From TrEMBL, chain A:
<dbReference type="InterPro" id="IPR019559">
    <property type="entry name" value="Cullin_neddylation_domain"/>
</dbReference>
<dbReference type="Pfam" id="PF10557">
    <property type="entry name" value="Cullin_Nedd8"/>
</dbReference>
<keyword id="KW-1017">Isopeptide bond</keyword>
<keyword id="KW-0832">Ubl conjugation</keyword>
<dbReference type="GO" id="GO:0000209">
    <property type="term" value="P:protein polyubiquitination"/>
</dbReference>
<dbReference type="Pfam" id="PF00888">
    <property type="entry name" value="Cullin"/>
</dbReference>
<dbReference type="InterPro" id="IPR016157">
    <property type="entry name" value="Cullin_CS"/>
</dbReference>
<dbReference type="GO" id="GO:0031146">
    <property type="term" value="P:SCF-dependent proteasomal ubiquitin-dependent protein catabolic process"/>
</dbReference>
<keyword id="KW-0175">Coiled coil</keyword>
UniProtKB/TrEMBL annotation, chain B:
<dbReference type="InterPro" id="IPR042460">
    <property type="entry name" value="DCN1-like_PONY"/>
</dbReference>
<dbReference type="GO" id="GO:0000151">
    <property type="term" value="C:ubiquitin ligase complex"/>
</dbReference>
<dbReference type="GO" id="GO:0032182">
    <property type="term" value="F:ubiquitin-like protein binding"/>
</dbReference>
<dbReference type="InterPro" id="IPR014764">
    <property type="entry name" value="DCN-prot"/>
</dbReference>
<dbReference type="GO" id="GO:0045116">
    <property type="term" value="P:protein neddylation"/>
</dbReference>
<dbReference type="GO" id="GO:0097602">
    <property type="term" value="F:cullin family protein binding"/>
</dbReference>
<feature type="domain" description="DCUN1">
    <location>
        <begin position="1"/>
        <end position="198"/>
    </location>
</feature>
<protein>
    <recommendedName>
        <fullName>Defective in cullin neddylation protein</fullName>
    </recommendedName>
</protein>
<comment type="function">
    <text>Neddylation of cullins play an essential role in the regulation of SCF-type complexes activity.</text>
</comment>
Amino acid sequence: MADTNMIPRPATPPQPGANADLTTTWAYLLHGVDGIMTRLKDGVSYTKYMGLYTTAYNYCTSSRMHGGSLEAIGGTRTTGANLMGSDLYNSLQRYFRDHLQSIRGQTDSLHDETLLQKYAEEWNRYTVGANYVNRLFTYLNRHWVKREKDEGRKNVYTVYTLALVVWNEEMFKYIQAKNNKLANAILRLIERQRNGESINTGLIKQVVGSFVSLGLDEQDSNRSNLSVYESAFQTPFLLATENYYKAESEQFLAENTVSEYLKKAEARLKEEEDRVEMYLHSSTRKGLILKCEDVLIRAHAQKMWDDFQNLLDFDKDEDLQRMYALLARIPEGLEPLRKKFEDHVRKAGLAAVQKLVGSGGQEAADQVEPKAYVDALLEVHRRNQEVVNRSFKGEAGFVASLDKACRDFVNTNAATGSNAAKSPELLARHTDALLRKSNKMSEEADLEQALNEVMILFKYLEDKDVFQTFYSSKLSKRLIHSVSASDEAEASMISKLKEACGFEYTNKLQRMFTDMSLSKDLTDQFKQKQEQNHGEMEINFSILVLGTNFWPVQAPKIDFNIPADILSTYNRFQGFYQSKHSGRKLTWHWNLSRNELRANKMNPKYIFMTSSYQMSVLLQYNDNDSMTIDELVQATGIPKDQLEPVMNVLIKSKVLLSDEKDTYDYNPNYKNKKIRINLNMPVKTENKQDTSEVLKTVDDDRKFVIQATIVRVMKSRKTMKAQALIAEVTQIIAARFTPRIPDIKKAIDTLLEKEYIERADGTRDTFNYVA
Amino acid sequence: KLGQLFDKYKDPDGDMIGIDGTIKLCQDMDVSPEDVVLLAIAYECKCPGVGEFTREGWVAGLQSLKCGLKRALPSLRQRLLTDNDYFRTVYLATFNFAKAPDSRVLPLDMALDYQRLLIPPALGSRGALASHSPPGFKAEHFEWWAEFLTEKSGMKAMTKDVWNNFIDFIKQIDAGFLTHDLDAAWPSVIDDFVEFAKQRAISG
C-alpha cells in the first residue's frame, strides 16, 4: 500500500563499456542524473555514483570518432575529446530544460505564499541536485568546459551554472512573465509584514536568495552579479516602499502630532534596517534607507522644522533628541534647526535680562545688581548648553549657534542698552564680589566653581579690555585694602584669564602681586632696620610700594600736610628706600592709606580705623578742642571741597560735634558699644566716578592699541591696501575688543600725520610704512 | 634785467624779497595781496614762505613766464583756475608754502582761508575742479565744509593728508553726498563731514 503513489521507474540501464557510443552512454547517465535531480532522498549508492562518474569520464576521454549524428555547437573541432564533451554538455542542457518544463506547470495555479513555497521547494531540490550532478561531471567541467571558455566561447558554463541558467530561462522567467508574479508575491508578503502581520520571513529569504544566485556576469560567468535581484526585485521593492511610506506618513501626520510622527518615523527606519538584516541582500540597505529617509524625513522636514520651536518651548527633550537624530540623516536637515535654536537662545537671554530690569527703564538698567545679572545670563547658558549636549549630542553646529546667541545677548541686552562696556563692567564687579573676603562662600570649591562660571561669560565678552580695566581697578582695591578672599583664588582667576587671553592680558595683574610680596619684604626689612637704629617703634608701619605703570591708581593732586606724629617715620622710610633704590621716586597715595588711632583721651580708649585724611583731622584735636573749617584746611592741607565729606563722616559718627556752622568740636562724651570703630567708609558716589574713570582709561588704551597694531602690521607688510589693513587690524584686536572702523581710520589719520605711514604715490587707498 | 627788478623789491638788509617788498610788488602789479594768482606766482618762484622770494627762485620763475610779470597775470590766473593738473600742482604746493617751516600742519583758519581762495573759483563747469556732470560739489558746499570744521569737528589744524585728499573728494562726490564710499580710505574727517553734509542736504 505504501508504494501506490510511487511513479514507476524505468529499469536501470546497464553501465556502458569504456568505448560506448553516445546513445548508450547517455541512456545510462540520464537515468542516474534524473535520479539525483528528482529522487535524491532515495540516495545514490557509492557504486552507482562511481559508475556514473566513470562513464562520464570514459566518454570524455575516448578519442574515437562517432558517426555524423553529432550536434556540433560550432567552430571546427580538431580533437575527439572536444566533440565528446560537446555531446554530453548538450544532452545535459536538454535534460535540465525538459525537466523544468515538465514541472513548472505546477506553479500555474499558485499565488502568493503558496507560490513562494512551491518555488522555494523546487529551487532547493533543483540546486541541491544540480550540485551533485556538477560534481559528477567534474571532468567535463575541468577539461571541455574550461577549454571552450578559454577559447572565448560565450554561453558555455560549468554544469552547475548551466543548471542555473536553464532555471532562469525555463522556470524563473516563466513565472515572472505572468505579471511579475513571483516578485509581487514577495512584495505583498512584505507589505503584510509592514502592516503588522507576522510572516514567514525565511521563505522570502530563500526566494530572494535564488534571485541573487541567478545573476550572472555577462563577461565572466564564474562571477555572479545582482542583475536579476536588482531588476526583478529591488527596483519594484524600492518603488513599493516609497509608495507605502508616502501614503502612510501623510495619513499619519494628518491624524497625529509631529511628536508622534517622530516616534513612528524612527521606528519605521529601524524596522527597515532590520528587514535588510533579516532577509534581503545587504546591497539593498543603502538604497532602501535613502528612500525611506527621503519619504519619511525629507518630505516632512518642513513640518518638523515648524514644530521645533514648540518642542524647545516645552522642553520636550526626548522629542528634540528624536527630531535631531532624524533630521541629522539628511544633509540639509539641521541647518534650519540651528538657526531657530540660535534665535531661541538669544530671545531667552534677552528675556531673562528684561525680566531682571523690569519696566524701570534706564534707571532700573543702571541699578542692575551684578550677581543677579550674571546669574540670569548663566542660567540661560546652562539650560541651553544642556539642551545642546543632551538633545543635539553636542553637535558642533549647535554649539556654534549657542555661542553666537550667547555672544549677542551677553553683550547687548536690556541692561546694557547701547553701552558696550556695561556687561564687562557687571561681570568684573561680580568677580570682585566673589574674590572679596565678604563673599559668603563657605567652600573653596564653590568659589572655584563660581569663577569658572565667570569665565563662561567672559568668553562671550566682546570688549575684554573693558573687563580687564575694571578687573585691574578692582584687584588693586582688594590688594590695597587687604580684602581679598585668598591668594589661591586670586591666582586661580588670573591663570584662567591668562589661559583665555594670553600673557599680555594678565601681565600687569601679575605684576601687582609681585609688588605685594616685594612690599611685604620691604616692610619687614624696614622694621628690622628701625629696631636696630631706634629701638622699638612707637608707630606700627607697613608699606605698599606699587609700580606706577602697573597699578591703576592716581595720586591726589593736593599738598597734604604730613602730620607731625608720623613725619619721622615718613622721613626714615624715604631715606631707607632711597638707600635701597636710589633714583626711584616715591609718590605717596595718602588717599589710599589707612590708619588705626588709639584715643588715649577717651575712656575707654577707643581704637578708630581711619583714612589718612580723617587721621590728620583727628590729630588736630590733640591740641585743640574746637576748630573752624578754615583752620582745618590750613592745618591739614586738604582742600575744602575734599575736606567736607571727611568732616561729615566724623560728625555723623559723633567723634566730632558741630554745633555751629563750619566749627567742629571734640566730643569728650563719645560712646560706642564697640572698642574698634571703623570710620573709613567708602563714599557712595565712588562707584559712578569709578566707572567713568575706567571707561576713559579704556578709551585711551584703545587708541594706543589700535595705533600700535597698525604700526606693527605695516612694519611687517610695508605696503598695504586700506581695506586689508583695516580687516587685519580688526581681526588682531578682536580678541580684546571690537574696534570701530572710524576709530581705526582716525588712528590711520594720526599715523599719517606723524609720518609713521604715508599714502603710496598716486593712490588714495594704499599705505606705505615709513621706516 | 630780472635781477634788477629783484633788487628793486628786495629787503635792504639781505638778498630776499620780504613782506614789505611783496606788498609793494602787488601795488605795482595792481593786484590785491589776496588774489589767488599770487599762489601761482609763489609756486613758479618757489617761494619758501608767505611773502618771501629768493633771488634764484625769482629769476627762474619770471623766466618761465616768458613775458612781463604784470602782463602774464590774467593768463596765469586763467590757467590756474581751469587747468586740472596745474591747479593740482599749485594746490598741493600751497600747503607747504603756507605752513610754518617746522610744523607739519596748517592752523585750521589759515587752511580754510587758502582753500577758500583756491577752491570755490575753480568749481565752475569749466573750472579746474569741475566734476563729472551733474556737478556735485558747489561753492555753498564749501561753506558747509568750513562750518563743519570750525564748529563740529573739534579740529584745530589741518593735516597735509586732509588738505591733499579734499580736492579729490570734491571731484568725485555727488550733490546729495550719497555716493561716498566709507570703505575707501578717505581721511576720517571727510567721512564725518559727509555724514554732516548728508543731513544738511536732506534738511535743505
